[in-house]
Amino acid sequence: MYDDNNIFARILRGEIPCKKVYEDEHTLAFEDINPRTPVHTLVIPKGKYVSTNDFADKASDTEIAALMRAVKKVAALKGVDASGYRVIVNTGVEGGQEVPHLHFHVLGGRAVGPMTVLK
Ligand code: AMP
């Protein structure tokens, strides 16, 4: 069940401000409020999708393509497409997902090190 009052739903409705990085018909990207790296931008679908699972099951091919393309556009806008960056998608309880609206973390602006458990 999608929670219409989750924080990203409220951002999408304009009830809570965000620092917008990119927007198109299907996606919105904005700065993470608690950046872990010099570049830390969140890319979300505008549709009501709780998680990776929900998105893969229910989103249209157009929405899925738009989100993936938006990730690369955000990396370019933030100047890390050539230097490299990490994309993290926490999914569900054991995946450490806190906000129940699918979001891709785009992290970079410095070497982020080997892939490991992030505390
Ligand atoms: P996750 O643990 O993958 O669900 O990540 C949730 C992310 O949302 C965290 O990195 C938070 O810092 C971020 N976050 C929470 N509230 C806001 C907000 N109002 N604006 C921007 N980012 C937020």
Outline the structure in words.
With 119 residues, the protein is of the alpha+beta class. It has a single domain (7-108), classed as HIT family, subunit A (2-Layer Sandwich), CATH 3.30.428. It is built from three helices and five strands, in the order H-E-E-E-H-H-E-E. The chain has helices spanning 7-12, 52-58, 61-77, and strands at residues 20-23, 27-31, 39-45, 85-88, 104-108. The chain has a five-stranded antiparallel sheet, with helices on one face. Strand 1 (20-23) and strand 2 form a beta hairpin. The relative contact order is 0.22. Residues 7, 16, 18, 32-34, 42, 90, 96-99 line the site of adenosine monophosphate.
List the helices and strands and how they pair.
Blueprint: H1 7-12, E1 20-23, E2 27-31, E3 39-45, H2 52-58, H3 61-77, E4 85-88, E5 104-108
Antiparallel strand pairs: 1-2, 2-3, 3-5, 4-5
The structure holds adenosine monophosphate.
